[in-house]
Amino acid sequence: MPISKKKMSQASQISRSLSKQDELLNVQTQYFLKLNEIKLTRKERIKKVIYDPETKQFFGRTGTSWAKIGLFYFIFYGMLAALVAVCMWVFFQTLDPRIPKWQLDRSLIGTNPGLGFRPMPENNEESTLIWFQGSNKTSYTYWVDNILSFLDKYYVPSKIAKGNGQIKTCSHHDYPNIGEVCEVEVRHWEDCNRDQFFNYHKNSPCIFLKLNKIYGWTPEYYDDPFDLPQEMPESLKERIRKINNTRERQNVWLSCEGENPADVEYLGPVTYYPKDVQGFPGYYFPYLNSEGYLSPLMAVKFERPVSGIVINVECRAWARNIIYNRVERMGSVHFELLID
């Protein structure tokens, strides 16, 4: 028997009425629950958040719920840690502890070695002033101690080598073999030695210069006495021309001068140690991170600098593949001398 439209409409109205009553009942229930919570003290509410005895929930979760979520995160982070460990293991298999992955032009260091000097001023990385009074031991003690600290491994090379016989005395006619390194002979520094306080007590200070290490870098020498740069000091040119053997001219040459005409006059004569080579001999290159390797050093002694005046000094390394730029301090180093 077909249902009339009137009856269908009445049924729909009754359904909507029941739905509204349910909503009203739900609102009333929520109201009374909130009212009960309002009646709780703050301490009671905190306790209920931590553990609700009615629902047996701890921080809003039952024990089973906490166990499930704990197991999930344990497995998730365990797998994540395992993945990272495997990736790191694979990565480290591609590295060599002695050979850098990126070298020369592909490295951040590049292919242009800089010069470094010792002693360095105290607690001020931006300062390059070496200031002392030779007649006052307290005044020059810091500079002497700074040099001694730097040269410690040169006086006792066994501190960085394990004594496997890889350190040898080299020459321009006797280069090191694979696995060997050349000794830096401190006796060749002559006046610039620790027993003489590096001549600071005589107002004739010694400054030690070194070429910064770049793995695999090999210098291109100025070994042709008829093809020397125009700006090279005449005294250095003459020294190179006096060397007859081509191999003995294979050095990274070094020169130190006053930066300005007045500085040249105030600086006075300069002596380089070792005396036989005014620079860094070619048999120390290339640097291959071999055990026991020490960078070659030049000791530069300023014989009679004028006292009471700040003297600007520039030392420059000379090789065809060392780019020089005074403003950027490329291929050179700058410092000042002030002797009271």
TrEMBL record:
Biological process annotations from GO: intracellular potassium ion homeostasis; intracellular sodium ion homeostasis; potassium ion import across plasma membrane; sodium ion export across plasma membrane
GO CC aspect terms: sodium:potassium-exchanging ATPase complex
Subcellular locations according to the entry: Cell membrane
Main location: membrane
Membrane-traversing stretches: 71-92
Keywords tagged on the record: Cell membrane, Disulfide bond, Glycoprotein, Ion transport, Membrane, Potassium, Potassium transport, Signal-anchor, Sodium, Sodium transport, Sodium/potassium transport, Transmembrane, Transmembrane helix, Transport
InterPro entries referenced in this protein's UniProt entry, alphabetically: Na/K_ATPase_sub_beta (IPR000402), Na/K_ATPase_sub_beta_sf (IPR038702)
Pfam families listed in its UniProt record: Na_K-ATPase
A single GO molecular function term of this UniProt record: ATPase activator activity
Function: This is the non-catalytic component of the active enzyme, which catalyzes the hydrolysis of ATP coupled with the exchange of Na(+) and K(+) ions across the plasma membrane. The beta subunit regulates, through assembly of alpha/beta heterodimers, the number of sodium pumps transported to the plasma membrane.
Family as reported in the entry's similarity comment: Belongs to the X(+)/potassium ATPases subunit beta family.
Annotated protein name in UniProt: Sodium/potassium-transporting ATPase subunit beta-2
Organism: Psylliodes chrysocephalus
